[in-house]
Amino acid sequence: MKNLLLLVVFILSNSFTEFPATKKEYTFKVMSNSYIIINGSSNVNKFGCKVLKPLQTKPLKALITSNYKVDLDGAIRVKVDEFDCENNILNRDLRKTLKAATHPYMTVYFKSLDQIPFTEGEDTINGTIVIELAGTAKEFKIPLSFIKKGNLYQMKGNKSFTFSDFKLLPPKKVGGLIKVKDEFKAIFMLSLQYLE
């Protein structure tokens, strides 16, 4: 009975995991179409701020642990003054609020996954990230969605924050007229290529 149980566990673990047990560490190239968007809202309307230039990245490393969780080592970084909200006044006030002059970068660090993604198709897994903004780093547990085709992955996630999470005060009036609400959402997508 014990041998049968071990066989079932082995079959299930190999059916739902991407990587064979013979290799524990994997490296992925972060592709140039990866992105970060900041969405916010005001008393007038909603707005989105995108980075139009390619992100600053380094390869993402994944280490499978003995309990089939995944430790991650990787990050994406953008210059705060490269966020484009399609409004010059909003751009200026957002950069001032996020202290771009003294803390020019926003960085998202990828720390871990609670389990290994499925072999093919789509999957959602809880993961741990750290967001560093305006000199403050905060750790968050969020659901991360994965889409896999061949040796390519897309990893997507989002998290809503308040300005106070990062010891910031929202601009009272943007351009003297628009009041920005004390909440914004960071949305990111990593396009990953598995390096053999």
Automatic annotation (TrEMBL):
Residues 73-181 form the Lipid/polyisoprenoid-binding YceI-like domain. Keywords: Signal. Pfam families: YceI. Residues 1-20 form the signal peptide. The keyword ATP-binding does not apply. It comes from the Bacteria. InterPro entries: Lipid/polyisoprenoid-bd_YceI, TTHA0802/YceI-like_sf. The keyword Signal applies. This is Lipid/polyisoprenoid-binding YceI-like domain-containing protein.
